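Human: Here is a favour to ask of a fellow structure person. Comparing notes only helps if you start from a blank page. Give me a protein, with the fold worked out from its sequence. Please set it down just below, with no commentary around it:

Assistant:
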Amino acid sequence: MTATASAYADRYLAAVGRAVPASSRPEILAELEASIAEQVEPRVAEGEDRDAAERAVVAGLGEPIAYASSLIDRPMWVVGPRYYAAWLRLLRLLLWIVPFCAVGGVVLAQLIARAPAGAIFGSAIAVLIQTIVHVGFWTTLVFFALERTGSTGDTILDWNPDQLPQSADARSGRMDLIASLVFLAVAAGAIVWDRVLGFFPTGGAPIPILAPAPWPWIVLFGFIVLEAAFAIVLYVRRRWTTALAVVNTVLAAAFAAATLTLLFRGELINPSLLSFITEAGGEGFAQGQRASAAQGGVFGILGVLLGFGLVAFSAWDIADGWLKLRRVRRGAVAAVAAGV
């Protein structure tokens, strides 16, 4: 790739490359790169900043999905050619967010209600399917109505180069390593502080949140050390690989399993803290315990919420690793296709 395809141009080429058939991708991207270079270089020669020149050129080319369709003469008629690119961008975004939130809410409610595993799984699948269908139907219906009513839709149709996905190489640099190690150091310091001085205020001496038994200490510090080692290996390798994504998945799943085991065995949270909360709550707390007895009482509900949070954190960590690997692969494919 030439020097001109470094910022906006590189991102635009990657976006167009994902929207054209693999069979014609090398030729299309080579021609597009040459075209961008021919327009950028005169601007740079006249003294314009390269990034600004690239931004202006790709802005003139327009939304990358629409531009790719014009190159391959592919009609965009799901909801009409005018709104197709905006419809596709919004639909992809909603399908990443809405089903996850809906399924998470249903699973959390079922866990609090102490539903059996089969009922939780069945409800989650049903909600997932219904949510996907509804998101697809209603999003398409809205754009269909906009197309047929002749709405100007200026806000919907707005596109600029700043909306292009960031460069897909997803390398782990020194700043990422420093941020990871600082976060882990703060977590380790918080655990030590909790064990030595206590975190929960009582009006007197603070009470530790974690149980005084050695297992929470061993498990949490063990995973902090493993995560620090993983961050260093990732920095040395400079990019995500399949092996690193698998290791990250194993670490996250093991963390969730270990902490959930401690939580539901009553070995994660300090019993003295629970006793203090019970005594300090008085009759109001007792009423809450009776009202939520079917769900295991107030502490049962809080335990479910904490467990759900641990699982959600681990799931996010796993998904983040695989998404970064996917971006690396996309960047490699686009670079090869463009002749790098």
Observations:
- The chain has a mean pLDDT of 78.
- The CA atoms of residues 104 and 312 lie 9 Å apart.
- The radius of gyration is 26 Å.
